[in-house]
Amino acid sequence: MCITNENKTHSINLSRTFKLDDTNNSPETGAQIIIESNNNINYNFTETSNGVYVSNTAFKAEKNTSYTLKITTKNGRTYSSSSQKLTAITQIDKLTTTKENSIEGEEGVSIYVHSFNPNNDANYYRYTYEETQKISPPFWSDKKIKIVSDTRPYRVEVIDRIIDNKDCYSTTFSKKILITETKSLSEDRVNFPVKFILSDNFLISNRYSILVKQYVQTFEAHNYYKTLEKLTSSSNVLTQTQPGFINGNISSDTDKNENVIGFFEVSSVSEKRIFFNFSDIFPNKSAEFISSCNFQAPILSDPFSGESPLIDLIKDDTHTYFKENDTGLQHLEGRYLMVPKICGDCTVLGTNVKPSFWID
Backbone phi, then psi, for 100, in 5-degree steps? Predict the structure, then answer.
């Protein structure tokens, strides 16, 4: 649970506790949430979906102001956080890419975040990111094939494509806990590998962008996330360290003996975005598409069965038109080359709406 110095509507997620290896949480619905400040300005939140509460107005955390999270559940139980102030502000100086090998010796690219705080009063950092890839299928055509008659005599025609499905975009968000600290260093300088991507990962096969956000944390928040990181980083739940109870900064006003897991932060945040093409990092290597793209060229009318393999394929909507068949291959008898839809229609993998931030 975090509010920042960004002027926006902030959101808070509430749920009941669940097992570490459980993929489904139990959202806490019907609660009332208020963030109180010591300057007598309160911010109310409204539930927009199960367990997700969004502030009614946009606001940002201010310096020298204390904030406290107040929660009242639908059964009347109340909870409060300790008072929190905005952490020191540290800007991201730059993001860089470095071609490196993984521990297993596989080639890839690392994305590093760099920042420096000359006042040496930040020291604890958490990172999130969102990454966007451009998807351009290798066998796209500006034409499509249309069924004119699906009864004998069968007829199809090639027409101009109306919907643009040449280039698409897909965005994913980080899920891992990414933290680092500079308290043990001689200066408050960050050089942190926020992401490593293998060279054969389809994510970077064309053009790629990543937006990194840097949150400055308190020592207590850092320790809280460090404990969570240890619990979630193990691939085997049975070998995980058993913490007993994860101490946060939220407690029950109703029952002081009730265990509450959660941390309310007031963090300064900085963000930066970079773009790169696959060829920028691996100039002597060819990127691979995510799927095999074998051609099919079914005939329009089968003289033996009387059916139309081509029209059946079009109706299945698993393939799309590429071009006239000029291969001369015997196993490709039909007039039109068809490819798996994923190989000619980018909307299978993303949206054809170009993000406002995108730069080609």
Answer: -140, 170
Q: Extract the tokens encoding 243.
A: 């913490």
Q: Tokens for 25, please give them.
A: 């949480």
Question: Cβ(233)–Cβ(288) under 8 Å?
Answer: no
Q: Are 293 and 348 in contact (CB under 8 A)?
A: no
Contact 340, 164 (CB under 8 A): no
Name the pTM for this structure. 0.91
Interacting residues of 89 by C-beta distance below 8 A, sequence separation 6+: 5, 122, 216, 268, 270
pLDDT tens column, 302-330: 999 999 999 999 999 999 999 999 999 99
Average per-residue pLDDT for the chain: 94
Could you give the CA distance from residue 316 to residue 170 in angstroms, rounded to a whole number? 25
**Token pair listed for 59:** 């606001």
Give the whole-angstrom CA distance, residue 130 versus residue 273: 9
Q: How far apart are CA 3 and CA 11, in angstroms?
A: 8
